[in-house]
Structures are given as C-alpha cells and as structure tokens.
Amino acid sequence: MKLAIPFYCLLLWFANVSPASGDNNWPQWRGPLNSGVSESGDPPETWSETKNIKWKVAIDGNGTSTPIIWEDKVFLLTAIKTNEKDTSIPDPEDQPKTNFFDVKRPNAVHEFVVLCLDRNTGQEIWRDIATKKIPHAGAHHDNDLASASPTTDGERLFCWFGSAGLFCYDLDGKKLWERDLGEAKVGSSLGEGSSPVLYGDKLVIVRDYSQQGSVEVLETTTGKSLWRKDRDEDNAWATPLVIEHSGRTQVITSASQFVRSYDLNTGDMIWQCSGLTGNCTPCPQVEGDYVICMSGYQGYAAMAIPLTETGDISKSEKIRWSMNKGTPYVPSAVLYDGLLYFNQSNQAILRCVDSKSGELQFGPQRVDGISNLYASPVAANGRVYFVGRAGTTVVLNRSRSYQPIATNELDERFDASPAIAGKELFLRGSKHLYCIAEE
User: Fold this and answer.
1) pTM, whole model, 2 decimals?
2) CATH (domain of 46)
3) Angle at CA 176, nearest 5°, toward 172 and 178?
4) What is the pLDDT of residues 122-168, one digit of tens each?
5) What sign does the CA torsion over 47, 195, 331, 61 have?
6) 217 and 178 within one domain
7) Distance between alpha carbon 387 and the CA centroid of its chain, in Å?
8) Which residues form the Pyrrolo-quinoline quinone repeat domain (predicted)?
9) Do 217 and 261 share a domain, yes or no?
10) Pairwise CA distance, residues 55 & 191, whole Å
C-alpha cells in the first residue's frame, strides 16, 4: 500500500539521509520517518523458528537497543560483562539493598561493544570495543547498559552508551571521535535509555534524570558541543523528535513536567506544555501541525500539541485533543497513515485512535497471544506488528477495526523494538538477532 508522505516528513527524511537511499534502510530507532513506519517495506506476515528465517545469529552480552540497517550492513550495540573485577567493590549479591528495585552496583569491568553484521548472511564484518569500564551504577533488571539505539547518516555511525560515552565511527569501523558527557544519576538506579537523534550536521541527546537533566546538541563531524540546556525533570527516557515547522527546526522533548520545544540552532525554548505523567518514555509523533505526546506510568495521558505556538500553552484550548485512558508506559505508539496504534501501560491491551481528531476507532482490545510488551510496534505495507516479550508477534491489518492477520512464535524473550528494511524484519531477542524474510 502506497502512503502519502507529508511535506514535514520529507524535510525530516532529506535532512538526515541521502534521498537516493530510499526506504530500504532503518537508520535510527523509529525508522526513516521517526514514526515506526517503513513506507516501502514489505516484510513477511508469518514466520517461526523453522520458517522464513533468513538468518539467526547469537549476540554476546546484553543490550536492548534496536539494530539499525544501512544498505548491506546491520549495526547494534551490546555490553559484555568480563571476569575482571574491582575487589574493593563487594560482589553485587553481597551488597545491602539500597533502593526499591534492589539494583546493585556492578564490580566487574564491562566491554561496551559496537557490532557490524552482513545484512545478507548475519556474519560479523567488524566489531570494536568502544570503551572498557566498571559502570558507576547498575540498571533495573528490565533495562541494561546498552539500551540506546545507534543512528547513522550513511557516512558516520553514532553510538551512545550513556554514562560510558558517545562514540562516532565511519561505517567500516574506524573510530572518528568520542566524548564523555558525564555520569548520570538515575533515580532508583533504573538505568539510561533515550537514543540520540541525528538531524543534518547536528546530533541531539536528551538526558532526564532525578538528580540532573539536560538537552545537548553536538556537531557531528567533531563531537563538539554546540549548546546545552539544563532541564528540571524527573526520570524520563523519551527519545526526542526533530522537525522543521513554523520557520524553525524544533527539538521536541517529552517529559513529566513539560513537553518542550527548543530551537535546534540556538537552544532557545520555543514552547512548553504540561500534562504528561511520570517516567515519560514514548517518543513524540507528528501529525500535520501537531505533535502527539503520551505517557502511561502512574496514570495515562496523551495530547496533540500545536507546533505553531510560542510560550507556555499548558491547559490551553489550542491543544487539539487529549485523552487519559490506555496510553503506554515503555513502548511508543506507531502512527500509520492517520491511525495511531498504542498499548496500555506494558500490557497487550490495544487502542487505535484517529491521529487528527483523537477519536477512538477501536479498543480497549486484548491482543490474543501476548501478555506483556516493551517493544514499540512497527508498520509496513498495510500491516502493524506487535512484538510480545515472550516471543509472540501479532500482525494486524491497518484498519479502523481490530483485524489480526497472523500470530508468530519464536523461542526467545524480546524487549528491543523491531526494525523493517525492505522485505526484511529484524528482531533482537535476549540471545539472538533474527533476520526474517520470505524463503
């Protein structure tokens, strides 16, 4: 099914990657249009451990970052625990409980690794240990030390390991530069997670944590900081959105106190709007002249906020629509040709709304076969894919009613969001990376 691409999306696309590359790549966490949609992708509807598996390769270490795909290469990040220890730090099992989630400080050296695989075979082309260090803090058992997805402009690869550093490579594995942006003090030691966003010659990184917060823009060629703004926000993990609108390039950040828009070139705040709940994680989505932001921890909230305004527009009549039911905690929504699909909290309870009006199309609807999900849904060729944590993926028709097509099972846990490139679907499990394609 051919989708019309709005002009603002074309601006986003052409500013980031080569127009000649088409939609056969997945250059960042939420894909080429930052919406979770592959406009020309056509992956399979059905698969299993013995059907439509082009390749399956083991990935050592731990990481829940989404793989990205550029031409014939697949890139992903992982953190590998070694046997080298600092004996001055007690083993985690011997440390006293220090917070509600019982997250302990690691005492082992970890290798923070960048992997490049052959897209056709899954064979490793190159790997680099970006850095080796003992993490200054642990992470929630549902998180890890390599949860941010890399991004590329087709020439450079940007890899963000949070407190372990930011690293830039060429696509053949040569390290071009690196930056230490400091250690994050995440509330309850929940870990980091927001992915970097590339726009032209600028890289945007948001860090929202209980004891510190910032949005920072760096030069892609050198890693030099162009500007940085401190933020007064509690824990949030939402990856920002960058878009040209109303004569300015806006950096839109979702967080618990305010959704904010900054000028990409100057760092000046353009507008802000309150109304989301705590621990904001879903990525913003753009619909015409509005940005849709949502959260689903300790309450539910979604708002369609105008991109044309300035100043504080909290609780304003200018907000196009809002809702307070059934929004996601960890996963982001997928916006597909006027329909916004999202789950409730981390449960497999689905809703679909009209993205322009906020009018409910269907739901709450239980997705049969899935209990919980952390992965964000993706869409292509008239289909929407929901990946459950226990290995089940349910494929739906893009429709204003609930129309399941297929239910697919794999023998692995999946927390990472999928990627679609051409006729291939990439699923990263706890132990393996799958490339799914028609046999």
Assistant:
1) 0.94
2) 2.40.128.630
3) 125
4) 999 999 999 999 998 888 888 899 999 999 999 999 999 999 999 99
5) positive
6) no
7) 14
8) 113-359
9) yes
10) 31
